[in-house]
Structures are given as structure tokens and as C-alpha cells.
């Protein structure tokens, strides 16, 4: 009879390795990402409505303005005490305008410039004015309409 090359030690070692591999294969891991933390609740409005305010009137310079990209708004003050609002989305290719400087709302993507008075195109490539948006001035607060 031919002699078998397998020894008892080889069989036991191989069986233990096979059992360990089988147990590892049966183990499951929860690969689902944990949910993001809940957002902080909005601050309660005070008597002046400051929680809803876009800005204070003093924050908007005369002849200039401020961009509120999260609200898709640009608020300007063409002359003292007159506040206007326009969409912050450039009518050229949909970029969000980046700033208000030198009396113009400026799209930093392609260089379009719009008038702070009425959103009209001052310099292209945009050909269409920024659409006007509603705001309300309540005392020193500028609120979305």
C-alpha cells in the first residue's frame, strides 16, 4: 500500500484554518454610514424679527450691496434709504454673483456686471438683467418678502 503524505498534524492544522476562514466569512459588518447629525434648530425670532432678517440696513453700503447666496439674493442701496433686491443668479450661465463693488453687482465667473439701481446689464457677456426680488425694510432690519 502506498504511504499517505498527510499526517495527523497537517489534517488538524488545515481543518483549523478552514474553520477560521468560514467563521470570518460569516461575520457581517454594518457598512451603512451613520446618519448626519440633526441640524441645529433655528433661533427663536425676537420682537424685531431679527431671526428672519437678511441684514441690518447699516450693513448695506450706499451705492453698494451685499450678496446672500443661500437666499439667492443681492440686496443693494443705490441711494441712501432706498433698498432693492435681485436674484443672485447671473443670467449669463447661472453662476452665483460674487460681489457688489464700484456700483455694480459683479459675476466673478465670466465678468458680467449689473447696475445696483435696477439689475440692468452694465457689461456682458450677460444680455438679460437680474430679476428683481421682494424685500421689506422694517426699521433697521431688511427682511425677505
UniProtKB/TrEMBL annotation:
The entry's keywords: 2Fe-2S, Disulfide bond, Iron, Iron-sulfur, Metal-binding, Signal
Taxonomic superkingdom: Bacteria
Pfam family, one: Rieske
Residues in the signal sequence: 1-20
GO molecular function annotation: 2 iron, 2 sulfur cluster binding; metal ion binding; monooxygenase activity; oxidoreductase activity, acting on paired donors, with incorporation or reduction of molecular oxygen
Region Disordered, annotated ranges: 32-51
Name of the protein this chain belongs to: Cytochrome bc1 complex Rieske iron-sulfur subunit
Organism expressing this protein natively: Pseudonocardia kunmingensis
Lineage, uppermost ranks: Bacteria, Bacillati, Actinomycetota, Actinomycetes, Pseudonocardiales
Amino acid at each position: 500500500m502506498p504511504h499517505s503524505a498527510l499526517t495527523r498534524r497537517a489534517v488538524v492544522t488545515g481543518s483549523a484554518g478552514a474553520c477560521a476562514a468560514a467563521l470570518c466569512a460569516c461575520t457581517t459588518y454594518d457598512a451603512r454610514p451613520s446618519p448626519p447629525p440633526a441640524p441645529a434648530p433655528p433661533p427663536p425670532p425676537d420682537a424685531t424679527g431679527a431671526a428672519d432678517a437678511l441684514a441690518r440696513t447699516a450693513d448695506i453700503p450706499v451705492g453698494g450691496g451685499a450678496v446672500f447666496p443661500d437666499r439667492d439674493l443681492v440686496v443693494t442701496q443705490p441711494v441712501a434709504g432706498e433698498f432693492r433686491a435681485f436674484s443672485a443668479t447671473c443670467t449669463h450661465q447661472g453662476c452665483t454673483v460674487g460681489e457688489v463693488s464700484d456700483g455694480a453687482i459683479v459675476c466673478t465667473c465670466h465678468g458680467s456686471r449689473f447696475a445696483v439701481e435696477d439689475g440692468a446689464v452694465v457689461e456682458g457677456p450677460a444680455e438679460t438683467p437680474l430679476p428683481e426680488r421682494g424685500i421689506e425694510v422694517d426699521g433697521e432690519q431688511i427682511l425677505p418678502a
